């Protein structure tokens, strides 16, 4: 069962979703990536060292996504999801993308109400992450990335709707893993060039481009769902 509603194999669709969401990562999470980079002592910021730490951050983050995907898909197995329910989850995922795009561009902040649920959990996780800084070791970076993966994020919530619809823990984990790999290029680039990109990340034009890219992807998903259900 393809939970994405797109004319692509599920894992490829999830990867493309993450790749397109990279615009969101630059607009929203780039500041976090920059903060993690600057948390490394200046004497340790040579390219090889930073490359290892950034890969470790992101490996931990992707493992967290996969864990969440497996848990949500396991929840899906407890329900007999009808074709209509699965379609509604797919539409929900696309609408979440549009809401998130409006939030990124500062056009509308309604998504804050949805992310408020995740913030309750994040209040307990964030202090643990702060105790891991400054980062000086690879395992430390991996642990911090694994905590970062639970940061409230509309993009991740949209993807988890796909995992819930697929109702298979292994497939849910793989789907989230493919999504996480898709977000990797943007976050690695942001981390490696944190100082150079810091002003660009905060620029309204960057956020607008990110928002329009995500809206285009969401509309593509909605169009594909509509086309499938009309035949």
Which keywords apply here?
about 80% helix, mainly alpha, 9 helices, about 230 residues
How would you concisely characterize the structure shown here?
With about 230 residues, the protein is mostly helical. The protein has nine helices and no strands.
Give structural notes.
Residues 13-220 form the Urease accessory protein UreH-like transmembrane domain. Pfam families: DsbD_2. Keywords: Membrane, Transmembrane, Transmembrane helix. The chain crosses the membrane at residues 12-41, 62-81, 87-105, 141-167, 173-193, 205-223. By secondary structure, this protein is an all-alpha fold. Helix content is 81%, strand content 0%.
Q: Structural class given helices, strands, pairing?
A: mainly alpha
Distance between the termini: 17 Å
Mean pLDDT, nearest integer? 81
Bin the helical content: over 70%
Q: How are helices and strands ordered from N to C?
A: HHHHHHHHH
Main pleated-sheet profile: none
Percentage of residues in DSSP E strands: under 5%
The Rg value, from CA coordinates, equals 18 Å
Spans where pLDDT lies below 50 across 5 or more residues = none
Give a count of the beta strands, DSSP E runs of length 2 or more: 0
Instruction: Provide a count of the helices.
Output: 9
Shape designation: globular
Pfam families: DsbD_2 (PF13386)
Domain Urease accessory protein UreH-like transmembrane: 13-220
InterPro entries: UreH-like_TM_dom
Keywords: Membrane, Transmembrane, Transmembrane helix
Task: Set out the fold topology.
Blueprint: H1 10-38, H2 47-77, H3 83-104, H4 111-130, H5 138-148, H6 154-166, H7 169-192, H8 194-202, H9 204-230
Helix pairs in contact: 1-7, 1-8, 1-9, 2-5, 2-6, 2-7, 3-6, 3-9, 4-5, 6-7
């Amino acid at each position: 069962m393809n939970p994405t509603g797109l004319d692509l194999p599920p894992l490829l669709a999830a990867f493309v979703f993450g790749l397109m969401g990279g615009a969101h990562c630059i607009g929203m999470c780039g500041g976090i990536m920059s903060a993690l980079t600057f948390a490394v002592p200046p004497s340790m910021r040579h390219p090889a060292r930073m490359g290892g730490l950034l890969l470790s951050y992101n490996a931990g983050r992707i493992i967290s996504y996969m864990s969440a995907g497996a848990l949500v898909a396991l929840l899906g197995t407890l329900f007999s999801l009808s074709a209509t329910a699965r379609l509604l989850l797919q539409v929900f995922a696309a609408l979440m993308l549009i809401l998130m795009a409006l939030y990124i561009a500062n056009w509308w902040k309604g998504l804050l109400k949805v992310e408020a649920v995740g913030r309750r959990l994040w209040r307990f996780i964030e202090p643990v992450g702060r105790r891991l800084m400054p980062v000086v070791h690879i395992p430390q970076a991996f642990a911090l990335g694994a905590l970062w993966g639970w940061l409230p994020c509309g993009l991740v919530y949209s993807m988890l709707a796909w995992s819930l619809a697929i109702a298979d823990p292994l497939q849910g984990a793989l789907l989230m893993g493919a999504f996480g790999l898709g977000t990797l290029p943007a976050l690695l680039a942001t981390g490696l060039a944190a100082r150079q990109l810091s002003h660009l990340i905060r620029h309204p034009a960057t956020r607008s481009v990110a928002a329009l890219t995500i809206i285009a992807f969401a509309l593509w998903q909605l169009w594909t769902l509509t086309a499938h259900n009309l035949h």
